[in-house]
Input
Amino acid sequence: MQSLKTKVSSFGISVEVGVDKLDSVKIENLQLSVNGNTGQASARGTLACKTSDEALVEGGFSATAEVRLKVDLTTRKTTDISIEIMKTGGRFGDIVKGLETEVSGTLRRSLAKNLGKFCEK
Output
């Protein structure tokens, strides 16, 4: 998990907080289908992350998202990926919601890269 970093201010003191520890992953729904040379997958799940126990400011976030992707099975290339963050929670949930475009983009690039590695094996 890549670290989500932000500055938190309290009583005139500003500290950088990194939410970089995986707390849990829950897949609520997963569908896979193949039609000719096209594979499709859709999933809805929740990812929760938190700060390390040694963090000056402890907290975390959860994000529930729907992911859809299509793969050309002959080339093993991803042809379409969409990620929509449906709901956020936790102490830093509002930050994740505010950075939804950036978070979705990072998840999309990571998913495409890791799917490509998986298909190479």
Summary: Residues 100-120 form the longest helix (21 residues). The longest strand covers residues 21-35. Residues 78 and 100 are 22 Å apart (CA to CA). The mean pLDDT is 81.
